[in-house]
Amino acid sequence: MGFLKQYEILYKKARTDLKVAKNILEDFENGDDELDLEVIMFHLQQSTEKLIKSLLAYNRLHFTKTHSIAYLLDAITKNGIEIIEDAQKLIPLTEFAVEGRYAILHDDLDDVDKYIVIVSELLEFVDMKIRG
Prior knowledge:
Layout: H1 6-29, H2 37-58, H3 69-78, H4 109-131
């Protein structure tokens, strides 16, 4: 088995982050009081970031080291790369990349559910693009 390409590594890590977010949400919903929604949102942000970077890498485009989903989506748009319609709705996740892990934020389970649906859609889209 050969070396994985950068876009494949990013995709695999994004898939893992989404799975972790879903698992933590399930534990949270089952009453695990050791968890908070910011941890779930962090993993959703990480998954989104890596999925977009995977698309950029797949298209052989360089991207700077950033956690900004808006910046990455702008690179997608400027380079004419197709993306899901709801991708812009993921921009608020950027605040959970680093700062959100340490700040007091509004916990809203509805937001988590909404983001899980959109990130899952993005994952399926990227999978289709890079795996055919």
